[in-house]
Amino acid sequence: MAVPDWVPVREELRDEEPYGAPQIDVPVRLNTNENPYGPSEAAAADVAEAVRTAALELNRYPDREAAALREGLAAYLSRDTPAVDLDASRVWAANGSNEIMQQVLQAFGGPGRTALSFAPTYSMYPEYARNTHTRWVAGRRRDDFGIDVDAAVALIDAEQPDVVFLTSPNNPTGTALDPAHTRAVLDAAPGMVVVDEAYAEFRRAGTPSALELLADHGRLIVTRTMSKAFALAGGRLGYLAAHADVVDALRIVRLPYHLSSVTQATALAALRHTDELLANVDALRVERDRTAERLRGLGLTVADSDANFVLFGTFEDRHATWQALVDRGVLIRETGPLGWLRVSIGTPSEMDAFFTALQEVIA
Ligand code: PMP
């Protein structure tokens, strides 16, 4: 549906659609890589109390620098990857990693500048580029969804991108990046390299985080989110780790008071429940591996996943399969290369419902 002629929108936006997965009200929703486990009563009570306290000061603007929250996030990342030593000056936070990445392109992209990534990957990247008037270049991943490092370096040499987006684990394929490949991209890239680690907590044992590379690479940005592992998608809190000078550059483009005091209080309260929330991550990793096995048991092809979702296929008419699952009350995502579908990992009973429906559909 195009924007009507009388609305004087930028011409390149006229035929665009707002981004988003279909929000269909069915019993089993496994389509947006949410955490199926909500916060516990204790965590919810702590959030409520923190928000109540913040509410008493809602006549005041929030802490513009979100100092306490950034300190808490730095401590969490240092615990996640002990090899890295971070403090608040090297961490930045915003309303979801979506906003983080838009800020990155506002600061490091823009007219006359280029951003590059490797498809299939997160489909919002080209939209951040469009919104910031940044030229967009998409390379290709290999058939096994890894990065062909020689081709990647050649493309970077040819395009000289100001920003490269790598995603590890990648959405929608679940593929983790080989750190040697990340290093090769960092060595070749003339500008900033963003490693989007939205799903990092779900990675399999032995898969390192790009946080380890921060000490040696000033142009590296590692982004994370509380939407997935921390079960805080509704709270909207994304963050990044980088050199303190890079963080300072981002502070130039952020809107004043972009993180509400309610958001800051909510995220800080959630951080206090890190142990409880990460216990659910372990359960989801087990369920993820079980899901991949069960899909393979049905004779389907499954991409190895380090995330909280699995890409599987291939279907001659994937839309028909997707629709047949919706008709049985199970919503998954029609995304990724043609013929593939993506299922987010839910609770064991949600996954049983998914498999019951899928077996009927492919019988
Ligand atoms: N990066 C990737 C790879 C994602 O899949 C998502 C959300 N699906 C995001 C970033 C954005 O997440 P949020 O804005 O909720 O932090």
TrEMBL record:
First-level EC class: transferase
Organism: Aeromicrobium erythreum
Keywords: Amino-acid biosynthesis, Aminotransferase, Histidine biosynthesis, Pyridoxal phosphate, Transferase
Listed Pfam families: Aminotran_1_2 (PF00155)
Signal peptide: none
Family, as annotated: Belongs to the class-II pyridoxal-phosphate-dependent aminotransferase family. Histidinol-phosphate aminotransferase subfamily.
GO biological-process terms attached to the record: L-histidine biosynthetic process
Top-level taxon of the source organism: Bacteria
PROSITE patterns: AA_TRANSFER_CLASS_2
Record-listed E.C. numbers: 2.6.1.9
Protein name: Histidinol-phosphate aminotransferase
InterPro entries: Aminotrans_II_pyridoxalP_BS (IPR001917), Aminotransferase_I/II_large (IPR004839), HisP_aminotrans (IPR005861), PyrdxlP-dep_Trfase (IPR015424), PyrdxlP-dep_Trfase_major (IPR015421), PyrdxlP-dep_Trfase_small (IPR015422)
